[in-house]
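hey so u asked for the seq, here:
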Amino acid sequence: QVQLVESGGGLVQAGGSLRLSCAASDRTFRRYAMGWFRQAPGKEREFVAAISGSGGGIFYADSVKGRFTISRDNAKNIVYLQMNSLKPEDTAVYYCAASKALSSSYYRPWGYDYWGQGTQVTVSS
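ran it, structure tokens below
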């Protein structure tokens, strides 16, 4: 069982930046692939970014490529999402998720075993 706690969300103007953090409780954190998803009102949860346990494999949704960066610090059991050049369409609740195994379905919510409660990101125009 893994407990995930997100932080770093808030209100920011378009073009600004935020850095989200996800802290994990499990000592075997480095064995988990980690992902970020987001969900806006009236929309389904969508993939944002993912990173393998070692940090060697990184994937992004087309909508955030070049703007967002996912990283992890396995010594601290934390995964980050650096968000730059934010747009109003980035407004959503952002969720951190953990997967027990590497999967070609890293961009699908069902591929993850544990989820955080989410943190709100609001980008004003």
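The mean pLDDT is 95. The two ends are 40 Å apart (CA to CA).
lmk if thats what u needed
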